UniProtKB/TrEMBL annotation:
Species this chain originates from: Pseudacidovorax intermedius
Signal sequence annotation: none
Similarity comment: family membership: Belongs to the BolA/IbaG family.
SUPFAM superfamilies found in the cross-reference section: BolA-like
Protein name: Acid stress-induced BolA-like protein IbaG/YrbA
Pfam families named among the record's database cross-references: BolA (PF01722)
InterPro entries associated with the record: BolA, BolA-like_sf, BolA/IbaG_stress_morph_reg
Origin: domain of life: Bacteria
């Protein structure tokens, strides 16, 4: 799987204000900014992202995904 394919999958199921992906085709690191993360705990945010990938996680197309998740406000503070 390419970074573009993975990004398209995530963006199809989760409105993102910002997303970056790095990886080798199986092991990925993502930074994701979405208003849908407002009021959600870290585990809920990660579950929301994993839900966008569905079977891709179970069939090993995406073997590992590490991520940092931010709300738009958190991201603005991070970037300042």
């Amino acid at each position: 799987m390419t970074a573009q394919e993975l990004q398209a999958l995530i963006e199809a199921g989760l409105p993102c204000q910002h997303i970056t992906l790095e990886g080798d085709g199986r092991h990925w690191f993502a930074t994701i900014v979405s208003a849908e993360f407002d009021g959600k705990r870290l585990i809920q945010r990660h579950q929301r992202v994993y839900a966008t990938l569905g079977e891709k996680m179970h069939t090993d197309e995406v073997h590992a995904l590490s991520m940092k998740t931010y709300t738009p406000d958190e991201w603005a503070k991070q970037s300042a």
